Amino acid sequence: MNRRDFLKVVGTGAAVVSVPALVSGCAQKMVKPDKVAGAHGTYFDQFGVDTGLIRRTLEKGLSRGGDFADVYLQHKIEHWVGMEDNEVNRAYSTIDLGAGIRVLKGDATGFAYCEDLTEEALLAAAETAAAVADAGFGGRPKPLAAVKVDNHYSVEVPWTDVGIDKKLPIIQRTNEKARGRDKRIIKVTIYLSDTTSRILVANSEGLLAEDDRPMALLVASCVAQDQGKIEVGYQTGSSRDGLGFFSNQLVDRVAHEAADYTTMLFDAVEAPVGELPVVLAPGVTGILLHEAMGHGFEADFNRKGISIYADRIGKKIAPDFVTIYDDGTNERLRGSINIDDEGTAGQKTPLVEKGILRSYMHDRISADHYKTKSTGSGRRQSFRYPPVPRMRNTYMINGPHKPEEIIKSVKKGLYAEVFSNGQVQIGAGDFTFFLKHGRMIEDGKLTKVVKDANLIGSGPKVLEAVEMVGDDMQMFSGGGMCGKDGQRVPVGFGLPTVKAGGMSIGGRRS
Amino acid sequence: MSKTLLEQAKEVVVKAQKFGAQGVRASLGRSRNSEVEWRDGKLDRLRESTSMSVGVTLYVDGRYSSNSSSDLRPEALDDFLKEAVAMTRVLAEDKHRKLPDPARFKDRFEGDLKVFDQAGAEAVTAVNRRQTAKDLEAAARSGPKADQIISVTSSCSDSVSESAKVTSNGMEGIRQSSTFVVFTETSVKDEGGRKPEGWYYAVTRRRDELPPVEKVGGEATRRAFMDVGAKPEKSGEYDCIIENRVAARLMGGLLGPLSGRSIQQKRSFLADKMGQDVLGKVLTITDDPFVVGGLGSRTYDGEGMSLKKMPVFEKGVLRTFYLDTYYASKLGKQPTTGGQSNLVFAGGDKDLEGLLKAMGKGILVTGFSGGNSNSATGDFSIGIRGQWIENGKIVRPVAEMNLAGNHLEFWKKLAELGNDPNLYSSWRTPSLRFEKIQFSGV
Q1: Digits of tens for pLDDT over chain A (510 positions)?
Q2: Residue B381 is nearest to which of A92, A230, A507, comparing CB atoms?
Q3: DSSP 8-state assignment for residue B174
Q4: Residue A242 in contact with residue A196, Cβ under 8 Å?
Q5: B442 vs A426: CB contact, 8 Å cut-off?
Q6: Rounded to whole angstroms, how far apart are CA atoms A146 and A163?
Q7: Contact check, Cβ <8 Å, A507/B195
Q8: Domain of B159?
Q9: Which of A170, A284, A474, B160 is the least buried, fewest Cβ under 10 Å from its Cβ?
Q10: B378 and B287 share a domain?
C-alpha cells in the first residue's frame, strides 16, 4: 500500500461498515497506532505532522518569551447508532481533527487551536498562543523523547475497524430484553455509541506521549404506562473498551435495569420534605463524592483561593474510616487515562486518608504554584480547550460497617439508590444531587419507593457527618459525564453503603 | 467569504449525491473566537481560534444518517462521505425521514435582523479586550469592603460566525452573526471558610449594546456580598419571585416536553394539552425569530425551513408544539419548527422593585442549583439560593433550600410578570412572581 492510500484510510472514519469492498485487511492493521511513540514515528505522521514540525511549532510558541509550550494533537472518531419504535433507523458519525497549542508565562495561559494540520496553520496558532508573553525573544524547546506508560484499556480491535453491522444485534437484544421485562413498557429507545480518540502531547521540556482512548456506551430508555399513568426511566453501561464490553450479560443487565427503574416508579410515593438521615446505596451514589468534595479538591479553585477547601491540606475533614481516591489507573473504567492531557502518566491520588485531606488534584499550572508534582489530573474535552484540573474515577474505599447494620440503624430516613445529576457551589460549598429513585427507611427496614427529589447539603458538613461506611464498595458502571469551565469529560465514581446526615430532601410530602 | 462557503456546501451536496444519496442537506460553518481572561491584576488566559466544519444529513434508499467532520482535506472529505453513505445503507428504512417540503423554504423573512456587527467585530483588538477585562476587575473592586474580596475573575470575548446551508431539493441560505461578551465573577470572605461568589455577564450581538464595565463588575461584587451568611429557612409554603436571569432554568422543564420527539415518544406531560389552559391566565409566550438583535434571531431553522412568529402559550393556553419534519410526519401533523428561536414574554408593568413590593414577604430566588424535571409527569425539584424579603425589602440571604412542584400546578400560582426581560439570553424571561410555593429547608 502506498502512502497516499494509507492517508485516505486513516484520514476518515475508516471502516464504519464492515463491508469488505471498502476497507482492506491491510489497512485495518495499519491504522492501529503504536502504543508508544518513538522510532517508528507517531500516529500523526500520517497527517504530515512529524516530530520536526512539532518542534518548530513549540519553538514558535516560545518565541515571545513564554516559559513553557505544549502541542496537543487529536484525531477522534465517534459513531452513534440508535433505535426507536423497534427500528435501528438512525446513525450519526463525527470526525474531529485538530491541534491545541498552549504557552505558559507564570500562571498565565495563551491558547489557540487549529483544525488544519498544515505547517502554516500550526505555526499561526503557535504565534497566537505565544502572545501571552511579550519579551520579544524566546528559548528553544528540548529534543523530544517518547514516554512509555502502562496501558489500562488496550483493545484488540479498535472501534474504527468495527462495522455498524456488528452493533445492530446488540441494540436489538437490548430492545427485546427491555420490552420483554414488563408488559407495561410501551416505548424503548436504545443507542450505542463508540469513540476512538488518538492523542499526542509534546512539550518544550522534551516530553512526547501518545494515547489511544477507546470508549463504549450503551443507553436504554423506557416509557411505561399503567392505568393512564406514564413513567420514564433509563440505564447506561460504559467502559473504555471495545466491542467485547457488550457481553450478553452486560446488555441484559442494562436492559432489565432500564425497565425495572421505570416500572418501579408506579408504586412510588412523594419524597419527604426537610432534613432526614440519608443512607446512600453503593455505586452511582458516588456522585455525592464528585459534587460534595471532588470539585472543591480541584487545585485551580484552591490556587485562586476560592474553594471552601482552600488551605485545609493536612486537616481533619472527615471521620477516621473515610478514605477517598481519585484514580486514573483503574482497568477500563470510564474515567481512566493512561496519560493526562498534559502527558503526565496516569496515577492514583489519595484525596482523603483516614479523614485527613491529603492532596488536591493538580495540573501543571497548579502543581507549579504549590511547588509539588502534577497528579496527572490535567484534562481537556478536546484539542479546542486548554487543560484544567479534573476528576478521573473518584471513590471511597470500604469502611468497617455492614450494609444491613447501616440500614438497621435508621429509625426514619431515606435510602438513596439512583441519582441522575448534581451541582456544587465551589465557594459556598453547598451541593445538590438529584434522586431518581430510592426508598424510605422506617424502623430499620426499607419500605416505600420515592422518586424525583433534589437533595441538598453543605459539602464540608456532610463529610464531617458521615456516620457509617459499609464494606461493599461498588464502582458505577454507567456513562458519567462531568462539566466544568465549559468542558465535558467522562468520569467514574464509586461508593460503599454510607450513612450521612446534614442533607435536606426536596420532596413535596411534609 | 460567504459565497465560498455556499459554493462549498453545494459541492458537498453534489458529491454526496454522486456517492449514492438521493437527499442531502449540507451545512458549512466557520467561526472565529477571541477571549481574554483576567484575574487578580494579571492576565490569566488568552484564547483564540478559527474553526470550520461540515455537517451532512443523508437520505439514502429511504434511510437516514447525520454526520460531521472538521477534517476538510479533499480526499478525507470524499472518503468521509462515501463511508457515511455506506453506513446509512445498513440501517432500517424509515418512511418518515425526508427533506422538508420545498414549499417550506419559501417566504423567507427578508428584513435585517441586525445580528452581525461587522464594524464592531473589526474594531475590537487584543489590546481593547485586555483593557476591558482589566476595567471590569477595577470596577468589581471599586466598592466598599474591597478588603473582603478574595478573588475577581473577568473576561472579555467576541466571536464571528458564518454558515451556509444547502439542500438537494432547492434550499440555499447563508448567515453571519457576531457576539460580544463581558463577564465578571467575585469571591468574597464569609464565616466558616465559606466563599460566596457573585457573577454578572452580558452577551450582545452588537458591540455598542454592551453595558458599561462599572455595571458588570459592580453587580458581580454586590451579588457576592449579598450571599454572605446565607442559611436555609424553615421548610414551608412561601410567596416567591424568580429573578429574570435565572427563570429560564425553570422554563426548560416546560418547553422540553413540547418537542415532537417527547410527544411522539409519550414522554410529555403536555402531549394531550393542546388548546387547553395549562398555565393559568397570566403567561403569554411568543416564539419570535425576528427580534432585532436577538440572540436567537434567524430566518430559517436547522432543516432550512423558513421561520415565522408563533404563539406558544396565550394567556396560559397551549398553542404550539415544536415539530420538525420527521416527528411531524410520525404524528401525522404539519411541521412547525424543531426548536426555539427567541422566546418573548408579554405583559408585565413592574420592575423587580415593584414586584418585591407587591410580594411583601417571601423569597427572591436568585440562583438554582442542580435539580431536574420529569418530562413525562411534570414533577420537578430544584435547589435554590436567594434572599428573604420582608415589607418588599431584602432582609437576609438564603441558601441550601429546594423548590419542588408539578408544572401543571406550579404555573397556575403565577401572579404576575415583571417588565424586565433578560436581554442576554434568547429566552427573554422577565422576573416572575408566584404565590404559595412549597420550599424545603431545615
Answers
A1: 233 333 223 333 333 443 322 332 233 333 333 444 444 589 999 999 999 999 999 999 999 999 999 999 999 999 999 999 999 999 999 999 999 999 999 989 999 999 989 999 999 999 999 999 988 788 899 999 999 999 999 999 999 999 999 999 999 999 999 999 999 999 999 999 999 999 999 999 999 999 999 999 999 999 999 999 999 999 999 999 999 999 999 999 999 999 999 999 999 998 888 889 999 999 999 988 898 889 999 988 888 888 888 888 999 999 999 999 999 999 999 999 999 999 999 999 999 999 999 999 999 999 999 999 999 999 999 999 999 999 999 999 999 999 999 999 999 999 999 988 888 888 888 888 899 999 999 999 999 999 988 999 888 889 999 999 999 999 999 999 999 888 999 999 999 999 998 888 888 765
A2: A507
A3: E
A4: no
A5: no
A6: 32
A7: no
A8: 118-226
A9: A474
A10: yes
Q: Least CB-CB distance to B83: which of A13, A275, A460?
A: A13
**Predicted TM-score of the model (pTM):** 0.93
- Residues of chain B with Cβ-Cβ distance to A305 below 8 Å are 150-151, 187, 195
Q: Does B403 touch chain A (CB under 8 A)?
A: yes
Contact (Cβ atoms closer than 8 angstroms) between residue B123 and residue B207? yes
**By three-state DSSP, how is residue B138 classified?**
helix
Domain identity same for B73 and B136: no
Answer whether B142 touches A (CB < 8 Å): no
Indicate whether B42 belongs to any domain: no
Q: In this structure, are residues A220 and A191 in contact, taking their beta carbons and an 8 Å threshold? A: no
In CATH, what number is assigned to the domain containing residue B158?
3.30.2290.10
- How remote is the C-alpha of B164 from its chain's centroid? 22
Q: Which three cell numbers stand for residue B23?
A: 437527499
> Smallest Cα–Cα separation from A168: which of A238, A122, A237, A218?
A218
CB within 8 Å of chain A, chain B residues 42-101: 42-53, 63-73, 75-76, 79-80, 82-84, 86-94, 97
With contacts defined as CB-CB under 8 Å, which chain A residues touch B365?
none
Same domain, B346 and B434: yes
Domains and CATH numbers, chain A: 3-180+198-211 (3.30.2290), 270-506 (no CATH)
- DSSP state letter for B188: E
| Number of A–B residue contacts, CB under 8 Å | 291
CA angle B23, B26, B30 (to 5 degrees): 180
In the three-class reduction of DSSP (H, G, I as helix; E, B as strand; rest coil), residue B66 is classed as strand
Of A89, A107, A384, Cβ closest to residue B63: A89
Cα–Cα nearest to A159, from A253, A100, A255, A81 = A81
